[in-house]
Design goal:
By secondary structure, this protein is an alpha/beta fold. It has two domains: about 5-260 and about 465-485, Aldehyde Dehydrogenase, Chain A, domain 1; about 265-450, 3-Layer(aba) Sandwich (Aldehyde Dehydrogenase, Chain A, domain 2), CATH 3.40.309. Helix content is about 40%, strand content about 25%. The protein has 14 helices and 25 strands. The protein has helices at about 45-65, 65-85, 85-95, 100-125, 165-175, 190-200, 215-225, 240-250, 275-285, 300-320, 335-350, 405-410, 425-435, 475-480; strands spanning about 5-10, 10-15, 15-20, 25-30, 30-40, 130-135, 140-150, 150-155, 180-185, 210, 230-235, 255-260, 265, 295-300, 355-360, 365, 370-375, 375-380, 395-400, 415, 420-425, 440-445, 460, 465, 480-485. It is globular, with a radius of gyration of 23 Å. The model has no long low-confidence stretch (mean pLDDT about 95). Bound molecules: nicotinamide-adenine-dinucleotide. The site of nicotinamide-adenine-dinucleotide has 30 residues, from α7 and α8.
Length: about 500
């Protein structure tokens, strides 16, 4: 078994300096809870406010920096992430529990995100080469439309993708000239710190980027409440997102939410069944189902329902679940004891409501004490809670659909709208589905989880609010539009 080094003194990064806090916390390895991954400083409200003031003071300087300087800073961060993807991936796997290959791939993707936004800094990022020149309706008047940075942005992130989600917020924020206060999730402070450590050496002015680790209730709330924070980008649960939205809207801060999902993978009778099972296994269970894009509802046309369930059950039996650093594992542990208990409680709810158990859903013992469970599969009806609520663990259900129309109706019968997939060989149904699935992202013959880094990411209905993240569209959130009139 590989063991990494223990990180001592993981500190806040505020106004260009590393700071301790009055209290500390620890993060543990979910594959082996006897291993401490990090001892970290836990900020309080006062320290969060200090970071916000530092970002406010840095804003005039950073927002007027040249595109070349911003591009150089982001390119340097991206290059280091890519060069160190293996050691940072090891840290991610130890702290969050993704398997090592998944963790290394996540760090590489975070590096690519920074590289992409280095290019955006040069291109102007305004979705139109930096601005527009438009003929005025009045004679002798010139009009132009330009984009400017928003100001101080508060970035609040979840634990499940602790490199790439922060990357896809921090990179566009800095590329467009904003200053940043970044609050990672409490389960993954060392990942947040490792990213901040790289950023701290990228020649940014003091205060342009700050890291504050601590609780959502205190540090997150300080960002949400502060009149100095001009924009808030939050990824996390729907309930916390709603709180952030209400508080931010009441003081007219710009706000962007990426919240949960209850994503469907539709399997039609004409699909390549092996491919469909592959998509289901990857989409529903990899990363222990702890992805907002997980396909937790498998909607299968009646003609292939039983064959699909039999094949999927066989694949689930063969999956290897164990220590995230052990070679050959398909699935690591879930993130912590609380999530494991919640997942097992969901298995109980599924049984009580009468969903038919197909496979798994049990806590597993391994050589090390970790939060292991077998992937769970149930046959459900649309009214069952496991078919309606986000679980965020390795639990999926199959819903039977009579035909394509019923499958599409079931797919859209949810308060969420992040992504949806379909497995079919019918061009007609694929095209119809892409147009009529009420989501932010569609996938045809691909897993619902696993997206590109240079195109928009986000959802509709209960899954998101405000402009999309990633790609050129990120400019909509991280810039504000100014219209200039001039007598020619
Ligand atoms: P969470 O809501 O518990 O926490 C997310 C972040 O918000 C953390 O940093 C937390 O400390 C902070 N927070 C909590 N209360 C706060 C408050 N009152 N004010 C400000 N900040 C606060 O979510 P989680 O358990 O870390 O992550 C899992 C959730 O994230 C799932 O629901 C999942 O679907 C969602 N998620 C969504 C996406 C997406 O892009 N749609 C991506 C990943 C995860």
């Amino acid at each position: 078994m590989i063991h990494g080094e223990i990180h001592q003194n993981v500190r806040q990064y505020i106004n260009g300096r590393w700071e301790t806090s009055a209290t500390t916390g620890v993060s543990a390895n979910p594959s082996d809870t006897s291993e401490v991954v990090a001892e970290y400083a836990r900020a309080d409200r006062r320290q969060a406010e200090f970071a916000i003031r530092a970002a406010t003071e840095a804003f005039p300087h950073w927002s007027h920096s040249t595109p070349q300087r911003r591009a150089d800073v982001l390119d340097r961060i991206g290059a280091e992430l890519l060069a160190r993807k293996d050691d940072l991936g090891l840290l991610l796997a130890r702290e969050e529990g993704k398997t090592l290959p998944e963790a290394v791939a996540e760090v590489a993707r975070a590096g690519q995100v920074f590289k992409f936004f280095a290019g955006e800094a040069l291109r102007g990022g305004a979705g139109g080469g930096g601005g527009e020149n438009i003929a005025s309706v009045r004679a002798g008047v010139q009009v132009d439309v330009t984009r400017e940075p928003v100001g101080v942005v508060g970035l609040i992130t979840p634990w499940n993708s602790p490199f790439v989600i922060p990357a896809w917020k921090i990179a566009p924020a800095l590329a467009h000239g904003n200053s940043v206060v970044f609050k990672p999730a409490e389960l993954v402070p060392a990942c947040g710190w490792a990213l901040a450590e790289i950023i701290s050496r990228a020649a940014l002015p003091a205060g342009a980027f700050n890291l504050v680790m601590g609780s959502g209730r205190e540090v997150g709330q300080a960002l949400v409440d502060s009149a100095l924070v001009d924009a808030l980008s939050f990824t996390g649960s729907a309930a916390n997102g709603e709180r952030v939205l209400q508080a931010a809207a009441s003081r007219r801060a710009k706000v962007q939410l990426e919240t949960g999902g209850k994503n469907a993978l539709v399997v039609l009778a004409d699909a390549d069944l092996d491919r469909a099972v592959d998509c289901a296994v990857q989409g529903a269970y990899f990363s222990a189902g702890q992805r907002c894009t997980a396909s937790s509802r498998l909607i299968v046309e009646a003609a292939v329902h039983d064959a699909f369930v039999a094949k999927l059950r066989q694949r689930l039996k063969e999956l290897k679940i164990g220590h995230a650093l052990e070679r050959g594992m398909d699935i690591g542990p879930v993130a912590d004891e609380e999530r494991l208990a919640q997942n097992l409680a969901w298995v109980g709810i599924a049984r009580e409501e009468g969903a038919e158990h197909v496979w798994g859903g049990e806590a597993l013992q391994r050589a090390t004490a970790g939060h292991y469970m077998s992937p769970a599969l149930f046959l459900a009806r649309p009214e069952h809670r496991i078919a309606r609520e986000e679980i965020f663990g390795p639990l999926a259900c199959v819903l039977r659909a009579g035909d394509y129309d019923e499958a599409l109706a079931l797919c859209n019968d949810t308060p969420f709208g992040l992504c949806a997939g379909i497995c079919t060989n019918s061009l007609k149904h694929a095209m119809h589905f892409r147009r009529h699935a009420v989501v932010g992202m569609t996938m045809v013959n691909l897993p619902t989880a696993g997206v590109d880094f240079h195109v928009p990411f986000g959802g509709r209905k209960g899954s998101g609010y405000g402009p999309r993240e990633q790609g050129r569209h990120a400019a909509e959130f991280y810039t504000t539009v100014k219209t200039g009139y001039m007598l020619a």
